[in-house]
């Protein structure tokens, strides 16, 4: 599995498509990145599945709550 990649995601605030660099070498991660258009924070959760050699990326707005 490639440890470094780029992923295109849609900003949950303005809908603009931005490129997010991903580094899977440290395993699963949770992080924030700012939209380059509207400057709002984007919450990203990256889950690395070594067994199936996949990366799942979940994107949501900073103000959304998951219970």
From TrEMBL:
This is CPXCG motif-containing cysteine-rich protein. InterPro entries: UCP037225, zinc_ribbon_bacterial. Pfam families: Zn_ribbon_21 (PF14255). It comes from Photobacterium kishitanii.
């Amino acid at each position: 599995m490639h440890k470094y990649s780029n992923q295109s995601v849609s900003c949950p605030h303005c809908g603009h498509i931005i490129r997010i660099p991903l580094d899977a070498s440290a395993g699963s991660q949770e992080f924030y990145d700012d939209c380059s258009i509207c400057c709002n924070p984007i919450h990203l959760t990256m889950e690395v599945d070594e067994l199936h050699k996949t990366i799942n990326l979940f994107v949501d707005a900073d103000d959304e709550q998951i219970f």
